[in-house]
Design goal:
Layout (H helix, E strand, L loop, with lengths): L8 H14 L12 H12 L9 E3 L6 E11 L6 E11 L3 E3 L2 H8 L8 H16 L3 E10 H4 L9 E8 H4 L1 H11 L3
Antiparallel strand pairs: 1-4, 2-3, 3-5, 5-6
Helix pairs in contact: 1-2
């Protein structure tokens, strides 16, 4: 997992200076004077999630718990352009429930580097399944990709990925309930 100590802001600043020079930007211009530093700081902030202790509570609740429409911001590893994603994450407890904010933190904890949406979806499910050991996990992510919106095909469309584990793999009713709760994405 990335953190501010691992992120080399000095190297990022040098790289941003090279990009700006490649664009023939006057680095003495007051509008660009602090840009390399600001961009390096932005990357450190973007790829340093808040800690998640996966605090659970003993509870007999055995119905689905769902986080709907949690917005996260990632970055495409192919073009380093932003990806804005809405995350729908559910699990069915197995004797213990997770602190509610921890669902959102589970997603954010995977955003430590530029990452493909497909990989993010799979990692969120695997991480929650491994750490909490619920009966099952389901995750759907709807992403709007800067690389598709601002270059290439230039579409306003979004990309939907999903992954499931446990009971969501074997029980159609559980999958259907998740889809009903998350609504028309």
């Amino acid at each position: 997992m990335a953190n501010r100590n691992r992120i080399d802001q000095e190297k990022i600043e040098k790289g941003v200076r090279l990009i700006l020079q490649g664009l023939h930007v006057d680095l003495a211009d007051r509008n660009y004077a602090g840009t390399p530093r600001r961009v390096a700081k932005m990357y450190a902030e973007l790829f340093t999630p808040h800690p998640n202790n996966f605090r659970t509570f003993e509870e007999k609740h055995d119905s689905m718990i769902v986080l709907r429409g949690h917005e996260v911001h990632g970055m495409c590893p192919h073009h380093l352009l932003p990806v804005v994603m809405q995350v729908y994450l559910a699990y069915i407890p197995n004797g213990r429930v997770l602190g509610l904010s921890k669902l959102a933190r589970t997603v954010e904890g995977q955003l430590t580097e530029p990452i493909m949406q497909e990989t993010l979806t799979d990692r969120v499910v695997a991480d929650l399944q491994r750490r909490v050991e619920p009966k099952g996990v389901a995750c759907t992510i709807v992403g709007v990709h800067g690389c598709m919106r601002h270059r290439g095909v230039r579409t306003g469309g979004d990309i939907v990925t999903s992954a499931v584990s446990g009971i969501f793999l074997t029980n159609a009713a559980a999958r259907d309930e998740f889809m009903k709760i998350t609504g028309d994405l």
